[in-house]
Amino acid sequence: MAEQPQPAPPQATGSVEEIVREAARKFGLDENHFVSIAMCESTMNPAAINYGYSENGNPSGLFQHLSGYWPARAAKYGYPGASVFDATANANVTAGMFRDGASKLWECK
């Protein structure tokens, strides 16, 4: 049985909620709504991994990005090479995607 990858510790400073709120403000999103999505997706846990679901990787990180899609998404939104477990990168990439109309990719609304 293959060993499961272990997430890197979050690289962000400040509270996770403040990171999420700051990303929402940066991209013109409703802060409270964006926080509620992070709570729904990962209970605001930047190290969360859903091993029960796999489609091009496991949903991982604060907003549960499919790990196989993360590198391209991170690069597109200014975080090339960032870990999916980096709370700041995850929140900002997600906020950028939401701003650009990709919110339908998330189950939590």
What key attributes describe this structure?
109 residues, mainly alpha, Lysozyme, 4% strand
How does this structure look, described?
The chain is mostly helical. The chain has one domain (16-101): Lysozyme, CATH 1.10.530.10. Helix content is 39%, strand content 4%. The chain has four helices and two strands, in the order ααββαα. It has helices at residues 16-26, 31-42, 70-76, 87-99, and strands at 59-60, 65-66. A two-stranded antiparallel sheet has the order 1-2. A hairpin with a 4-residue loop joins strand 1 and strand 2. Helix 1 packs across helix 2 and helix 1 packs parallel to helix 4 (87-99). The relative contact order is 0.20.
- Class from secondary-structure proportions: mainly alpha
Kindly, what is the distance between the CA atoms of the first and last residues, rounded to a whole number of angstroms? 35 Å
Helix percent band = 25-40%
Instruction: Write down the CATH class.
Output: Mainly Alpha
- H and E order: HHEEHH
Morphology: globular
Beta-sheet strand percentage?
under 5%
User: How much is the average pLDDT?
Assistant: 90
